[in-house]
Write a structure and sequence with these properties.
6-stranded mixed sheet; alpha/beta; 7-stranded mixed sheet; single chain
Length: 886
């Protein structure tokens, strides 16, 4: 600990401030720089790649120090925050010129990953959420806010899996929580590592129930929690109160742009777990984490940042209400059918800036004059949008038109107050438009026309007094004065007031000269100060209209989303799906929305699907790799999800039954960071699906059981199908792709199971994938043909053909199974020997050996996952063992 008694007064002040913000890097304002000292300087110099110096501080050794210019501080703060640090900004509270002694300094804001407002640091198409989690032995209280827009939501969650799904849904950049949550058995490594979430625990004092309750009541100006809809949300209420308290503490303002809290139940929307969001590539691709190649990329034709964020939210939160879905569909259909009006709306949306985040900066009092000009430009097209909405007949547009506020009073205020080309800084003047303030106009004239005024007064007084050499002179001590030589002193009029006696004359002033002096001297300082004051008044007036602006911003965003969905529907030949609550999914001519768009030079092969709650619950899909099974299943899931956000879908017709959840188990990936193999990851996901799916869920399973031995894998896959098909256990609609052709025997044996396969055309040794789903099961896997398509060397392909023929003719696994069941020997099967065949003596091995470890070896072989070389070696090993026995 640095001994404060030895420090200089300035460093004592620094240490006192730093002790209050120990978890932050302190930006300490000294003149034109923000300086950092001691450990903060060591950390910041490395992260920011700036020079580390030292400063005398009263100690024997100089204090490590680094600094950044105050006018460029935002970029440096963004870099530190993006690296996971919190930054406390300590500002000089008065002008150093006016300070008597040490300049007082206070922290005016703490910038954290979840509270950063910089436009350069934020993705305008994505919300930047901060989440508060309150953990109890009963449940989790969760509150989420985007401080840049004023969004604030709250819910309660019952399990850790559901909490992880909720975290993945919002993808917060920062989480604050109580200490018990950090001690819980939760996957923090995923949060901090893969998701890069900053997590910190708050003091227990934040979590006092009475304090949280009173904070919420005071902030939202209500008398009871019932008025906020928080009655019964005990944990959620505390999480919400804590989040507000944390924002008060770090942002140093009252967060007046957070005007509503939205309680929601997770069951109000389709639930999409972490795996499903990842596998379906809704908002980012699985491999590159990019937008291109996702459903969002396909659907996003929005013109505004607000619309882009709302569309992302719709994709992540599909609806469960048929009424609300049809309401959106009606609005989309109306714009699909009215091309001219739709394009006119989109044209008027184009110049609108991000009203939500502009309002956030205005409420934070960080908006500059150019932000107000952007606000003005955004308001200029609102009357035209309102007029076009008023002409629409669908219920959603009528609601928007009836509640639409075009904010023209605020537009007129900004137009009158702010000049056309103001500076970025609020402290440079040149902000206020001429005619808005008489005092500003006068000061501006004083600054620019002062010399003319003095010249006019000098000429007027020279003529009035007859003093031919009368001059107005300026002195830094006495200011402006009339200078009269001794020879003309007898002509000085009575209203001249003596100011100073000189050797060869005297200096005088007059009331008029004094008035001009006051106007001219300090006119620039006064002008800058007055313009800043008037600008703040305009900004604060706009901030006081926060609820009006937020309602209009949401209406604009919603209009933008509907127009975007309509544009995509028309350009991509989508149709309006029917919505039913009978559990029927009937799609004719369905297409994968993303793959179709990526295949600009090829025709996408359309496919049908029929799933219901009766005879078509489970579709078992067989066929070779690369044939399109995974694409087909993802296609069905995406079309279902698109229908439930109110979008049109890529199909010739579609009747979509509401699904409460979509589950996917697609692809194989090791989770090495948590020490989990491919098979363990697969089984965890299957377990989650079987435990949480309902009969109204849609399940997509791809290649269950392939991460283990053939028998184990096939047994698990078989059992999973049996479990899902049992309506007493689950009975969910399921697409099940597999290479275990034995599962096709379940059609007819289990109720609701039907077989489908991918059509393949054979041309000699080659195959052509037709990409068409047809009834029935596949009888071959075409693995060698796929290997040939992939470019595997011809020698390997040739040898594989020999081995597969040998293994097919002498199905060792089947023979071993028969022996294990019968406990009998087996006669040799005569056949024509082939070049490079393994010794045919091994085919008679069961005549001379007992049921011993050789049979166990055969039973444990994973034939499906053997390479040709592995198969050859296995057969040779068996042969050698038998030779040794013989």
């Amino acid at each position: 600990m640095t001994p404060v008694s030895k420090l200089s007064p300035m460093m004592e002040q620094y240490i006192e401030t730093k002790n209050k913000y120990k978890d932050c890097i302190l930006f300490y304002r000294l003149g034109d720089f923000y300086e950092m000292f001691f450990d903060d300087a060591l950390t910041a110099s490395k992260v920011l790649e700036i020079t580390l110096t030292g400063r005398d501080c009263g100690l024997e050794e100089r204090a490590p120090m680094c600094g950044v210019p105050f006018h460029a501080a935002e970029a440096y703060i963004n870099k530190l925050v993006s690296a996971g640090y919190k930054v406390a900004i300590a500002e000089q509270m008065i002008d150093p010129k006016l300070a008597k002694g040490l300049v007082p300094r206070e922290v005016i804001r703490v910038v954290t990953p979840g509270t950063i407002l910089s436009a350069q640091a934020l993705d305008e198409t994505k919300n930047n959420y901060i989440m508060s989690i309150f953990y109890t032995d009963r449940n989790f209280g969760v509150a989420v806010s985007d401080v840049s827009t004023g969004d604030f939501s709250m819910t309660e969650i019952g399990s850790e899996n559901e909490l992880m799904d909720e975290i993945c849904k919002f993808s917060p950049s920062e989480i604050v929580c109580n200490e018990p949550f950090l001690m819980a058995d939760f996957d923090f490594e995923t949060l901090k590592g893969r998701m890069q979430v900053a997590i910190s625990a708050l003091d227990v004092g934040y979590y006092e129930e009475h304090r949280c309750k009173s904070t919420l009541l005071e902030h939202f100006h209500v008398a009871s929690l019932d008025a906020l809809g928080l009655s019964g949300y005990d944990s959620g209420m505390i999480a919400s109160g804590v989040l507000l308290l944390y924002l008060y503490e770090t942002q140093k303002n009252q967060m007046e742009h957070i005007t509503h809290i939205r309680p929601y139940a997770t069951g109000g929307f389709m639930l999409l777990d972490t795996s499903t969001r990842r596998n379906l590539e809704l908002c980012e691709t699985l491999r590159d984490k990019q937008k291109r190649g996702t459903l969002l990329w396909v659907l996003d034709k929005t013109k505004t940042a607000m619309g882009a964020r709302l569309l992302r939210r719709y994709i992540e939160l599909p609806l469960l209400s048929a009424e609300l879905i049809r309401k959106r569909q009606d609005a989309v259909e109306e714009l699909v059918l009215n091309y001219i009006d739709r394009e006119e709306i989109r044209e008027y949306l184009n110049p609108i800036y991000d009203l939500e985040r502009l309002l956030g900066r205005i409420s934070y009092k960080t908006a500059n004059p150019r932000d107000l000009l952007a606000f003005l430009q955004s308001l200029s097209t609102l009357p035209y949008i309102h007029d076009l909405l008023s002409q629409r007949s669908s219920a959603l547009f009528k609601e928007m038109a009836d509640n639409f506020d075009d904010l023209q009073d605020l537009k007129e205020l900004v137009e009158r107050a702010i000049c056309e080309d103001p500076p970025i800084s609020v402290r440079e003047g040149g902000i206020i438009r001429e005619g808005f303030s008489e005092e500003v106009d006068t000061l501006r004239l004083s600054k620019t026309e002062g010399k003319d005024w003095l010249a006019e007064l000098e000429a007027k007084e020279r003529e009035a007094t007859g003093i031919k050499n009368l001059r107005i002179k300026f002195n830094k001590v006495f200011g402006y004065s009339f200078e009269v030589t001794n020879s003309y002193l007898n002509m000085v009029p009575d209203y001249f007031i003596r100011k100073q006696t000189l050797t060869n004359g005297e200096r005088f002033t007059t009331p008029k000269l004094k008035e001009l002096e006051n106007a001219i001297l300090g006119a620039e300082d006064k002008l800058i100060s007055l313009e800043y004051e008037l600008f703040c008044q305009v900004r604060d007036h706009i901030a006081s209209m926060v609820e009006r602006i937020q309602k209009t911003a949401h209406a604009v965003a919603l209009t933008d989303v509907i127009a975007s969905l309509a544009t995509v529907a028309q350009q991509s030949n989508y149709i309006r799906p029917k919505i039913n609550e009978k559990g029927l999914i009937d799609i004719k001519g369905g297409r994968h929305p993303v793959v179709e768009k990526m295949m600009s030079d090829k025709m996408f092969v359309e496919n049908d699907v029929l799933l219901d709650n009766h005879n078509n619950r489970i579709a078992i899909i067989t066929g070779p790799n690369m044939a399109g099974k995974s694409t087909y299943m993802r296609q069905v899931a995406l079309i279902t999800l698109m229908a439930q956000i109110g979008s049109f879908v890529p199909a010739s017709s579609a009747d979509i039954g509401l699904c409460d959840r979509i589950f996917t188990r697609v692809g194989a990936s090791d989770d090495l960071a948590s020490g989990q193999s491919t098979f363990m990851v697969e089984m965890n996901e299957v377990s989650n699906i079987l435990r949480n799916a309902t009969r109204n869920s849609l399940i997509v399973l791809d290649e269950i059981g392939r991460g283990t031995s053939t028998y184990d894998g096939m047994s698990i896959a078989w059992a999973v199908v049996e479990y899902i098909s049992d309506t007493k256990q689950l009975g969910a609609k399921t697409l099940f792709a597999t290479h275990y052709h034995e599962l096709t025997e379940l059609e007819g044996a289990l109720a609701g199971v039907t077989n489908y396969c991918i059509a393949v055309k054979e041309q000699g040794d080659d195959i052509v994938f037709l990409r068409k789903i047809i009834k029935g099961g596949a009888d071959k896997s075409y693995g060698i043909q796929v290997a040939k398509l992939a470019g595997v060397p011809d020698a390997v392909i040739h040898r594989a053909k020999q081995l597969v023929e040998e293994l097919t003719d002498n199905d060792i696994a089947v023979r071993a199974k028969e022996i294990a069941q019968a406990g009998l020997g087996m006669k040799e099967k005569k056949r024509i020997p082939k070049e490079d065949d393994v010794d045919s003596n091994q085919l008679t091995l069961f005549d001379t050996v007992k049921e011993d470890e050789i049979i166990d070896d055969i039973l444990s072989m994973d034939i499906d996952n053997m390479t040709p070389r592995d198969a050859f070696n296995a057969l040779c090993n068996l042969q050698n063992k038998l030779k040794n026995r013989i």
